[in-house]
């Protein structure tokens, strides 16, 4: 596991929900910004029946396999020749997913495949007179699009663009536009109904963000957008041949996005020219998926650093590249068989071009596919960044029963029912039913509802935490996963604002924690972990062995 992202952020969510019945309730949580909670909810089905180490079975195994089965089903239903179906399946497999943590990856790809499939079913139903079937198709489109956003909010731009382009095409093509408008409004209403429970999970944090925006009381910390010129610089970066720290290079993915954008624009043009009603309806799904991929990619590049912009787009690329080849074969080249491949020069050359692209994609990612297989077999991990023996041993130690028992013993030193602020890599070992646990991570202060008094006197921080009902602070100040202050200082220099702000806010938060640790009643201090009762002021009996910078 990624012992920064997974240990601090993603694992505690499923454990908290299983023990307390809710994913929400933590004002320091980034839930609601990075995800609405669907990924953690689905992971909980595995955590409730298997050891916590199997949490990623939902995404890396179940959703991966279901994606392959869904592509197979679409290929069979649309009469695709097996050679092209195999090319689509291999495309889904070989594209390097750049696994960095257990957030949504193949689950997002699966929802996109399901959205495209549901859109085609809906389009076919709109060609008939069965209103119930048409509305069922519209509901399915809403279900999968909202599921996509609930899994990870970085999919929101794709989902919104897909909806606009797809229904825009439907309106343009339909002879019964009032019926399309009714279906579109129904889809929007269904989407709002389906997304509402996920929004309610983080509703208190959203209200805090709204209050801060209206009152203008947000903490004054450095940071902000990177600006137009930096956007151009980032575009040039993602179209360069620079190696990514997670495998491959950004140019490969950018060229794939460009290819899909060209397919989407071409498909939109052909929609207007074609007289084949069935072709036009189904090609709307190709256009919407490809255009949404390109717009989502550009948006990610504008908002994020190039590396993360690419990584957050890859689940979309995996799905859209795979399903587009299938739909192109079905719609652009008719229902292919060996006979009409031989009979039609256009079909033959077009089909060979699609197979050629699949072969190129396979060749580009073949080396990384081998590396992924070796890591999975030898180290039992899908992580894309380098993993050594120390990482493996640390993971095993932190996930072990002895660490869990040790932390539960520390928790038992606090009063039952009192709230605890936990700044440590393994809060998932706590008993969330015994104490409300507020865990934090490096991104906690990037959320719009973060109002921790980073720039104020440390005593203001004590009051802030006390007003939240927090009595105990458990602060892991030393250990392999604890970043030193010089590492945080390094975050303040990169050209991208999100890193600068993360570094600056966490340095200030760390200073407030050190003050509270030195000026509150000690409950315990051992093995780099200090537990203090902030409701009682007291000088530390002896100096805390803070790590050197």
SSE arrangement:
Layout: H1 5-20, H2 38-47, H3 57-77, H4 82-94, H5 106-126, H6 131-151, H7 156-173, H8 177-201, H9 203-215, H10 227-238, H11 250-273, H12 277-303, H13 306-332, H14 338-343, H15 345-379, H16 389-399, H17 401-411, E1 419-423, E2 437-439, H18 458-467, E3 470-476, H19 485-491, H20 497-518, E4 520-526, E5 529-537
Mean of pLDDT: 87
Helical/strand content category: mainly alpha
Binned, the helix content reads 55-70%
Low-confidence stretches: 220-224, 332-343
Q: Summarize the helix and strand pattern as letters.
A: HHHHHHHHHHHHHHHHHEEHEHHEE
- Shape assignment: elongated
* Largest sheet geometry: 5 strands, mixed
How large is the radius of gyration? Answer: 26 Å
Compute the number of strand runs: 5
- Side by side, the strands of the main sheet go 2-1-3-5-4
Give the distance, in angstroms, between the N- and C-terminal Cα atoms. 26 Å
The percent range for strand residues is 5-15%
Q: How many distinct helices?
A: 20
Protein described:
A five-stranded mixed beta sheet has the order 2-1-3-5-4. It has 549 residues and is mainly alpha-helical. Strand 4 (520-526) and strand 5 form a beta hairpin. The protein starts with a helix and ends in a 12-residue tail after the last strand. It is elongated and about 85 Å long. It contains 20 helices and five strands. Helices cover 64% and strands 6% of the residues. The longest helix has 35 residues, at 345-379. The chain has helices at 5-20, 38-47, 57-77, 82-94, 106-126, 131-151, 156-173, 177-201, 203-215, 227-238, 250-273, 277-303, 306-332, 338-343, 345-379, 389-399, 401-411, 458-467, 485-491, 497-518, and strands at residues 419-423, 437-439, 470-476, 520-526, 529-537.
């Amino acid at each position: 596991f990624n012992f920064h992202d997974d240990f601090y952020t993603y694992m505690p969510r499923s454990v908290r929900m299983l023990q307390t019945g809710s994913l929400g309730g933590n004002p320091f949580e980034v839930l609601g910004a990075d995800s609405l909670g669907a990924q953690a909810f689905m992971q909980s089905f595995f955590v409730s029946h298997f050891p916590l180490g199997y949490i990623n079975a939902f995404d890396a195994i179940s959703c991966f396999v279901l994606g392959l089965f869904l592509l197979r089903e679409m290929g069979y239903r649309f009469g695709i020749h097996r050679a092209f179906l195999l090319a689509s399946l291999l495309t889904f497999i070989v594209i390097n997913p750049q696994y960095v943590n257990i957030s949504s990856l193949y689950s997002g790809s699966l929802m996109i495949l399901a959205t495209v499939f549901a859109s085609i079913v809906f389009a076919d139903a709109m060609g008939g007179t069965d209103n119930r079937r048409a509305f069922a198709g519209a509901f399915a489109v809403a279900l999968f699009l909202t599921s996509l956003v609930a899994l990870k909010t970085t999919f929101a731009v794709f989902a919104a663009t897909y909806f606009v382009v797809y229904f825009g095409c439907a309106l343009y093509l339909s002879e019964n536009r009032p019926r399309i408008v009714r279906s579109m409004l129904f889809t929007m209403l269904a989407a709002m109904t389906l997304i509402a429970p996920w929004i309610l999970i983080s509703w208190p944090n959203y209200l805090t963000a709204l209050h801060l925006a209206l009152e203008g009381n947000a903490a004054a910390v450095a940071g902000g957008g990177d600006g137009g010129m930096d956007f151009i610089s980032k575009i040039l970066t993602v179209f360069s041949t620079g190696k990514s720290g997670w495998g491959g290079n950004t140019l490969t993915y950018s060229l794939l996005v460009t290819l899909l954008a060209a397919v989407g624009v071409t498909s939109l043009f052909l929609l207007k020219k074609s007289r084949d009603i069935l072709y036009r309806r189904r090609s709307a799904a190709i256009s919407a998926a490809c255009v949404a991929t390109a717009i989502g990619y550009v948006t990610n590049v504008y908002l994020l650093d190039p590396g993360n912009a690419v990584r957050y787009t890859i689940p979309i690329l995996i799905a859209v590249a795979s399903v587009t080849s299938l739909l192109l074969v079905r719609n652009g080249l008719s229902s292919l068989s060996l006979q009409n491949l031989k009979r039609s020069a256009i079909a033959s050359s077009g089909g060979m071009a699609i197979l050629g692209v699949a072969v190129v994609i396979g060749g580009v990612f073949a080396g990384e596919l081998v590396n992924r297989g070796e890591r999975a077999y030898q180290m039992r991990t899908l992580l894309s960044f380098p993993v050594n023996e120390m990482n493996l041993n640390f993971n095993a130690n932190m996930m072990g029963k002895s660490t869990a028992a040790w932390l539960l013993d520390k928790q038992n030193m606090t009063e039952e029912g009192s709230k605890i602020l936990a700044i440590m890599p393994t809060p998932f070992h706590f008993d969330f039913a015994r104490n409300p646990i507020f865990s934090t991570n490096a991104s906690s202060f990037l959320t719009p509802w973060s109002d921790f008094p980073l720039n104020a006197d440390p005593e203001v921080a004590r009051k802030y935490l006390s007003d939240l009902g927090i009595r105990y602070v458990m602060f892991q100040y030393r250990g392999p996963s604890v970043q030193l202050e010089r590492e945080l200082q390094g975050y303040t220099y990169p050209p991208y604002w999100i890193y600068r702000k993360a570094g600056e806010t966490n340095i200030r938060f760390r200073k407030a924690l050190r003050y509270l640790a030195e000026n509150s009643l000690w409950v315990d201090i051992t093995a780099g972990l200090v537990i203090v009762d902030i409701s009682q002021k007291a000088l530390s009996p002896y100096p805390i062995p803070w790590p050197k910078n």
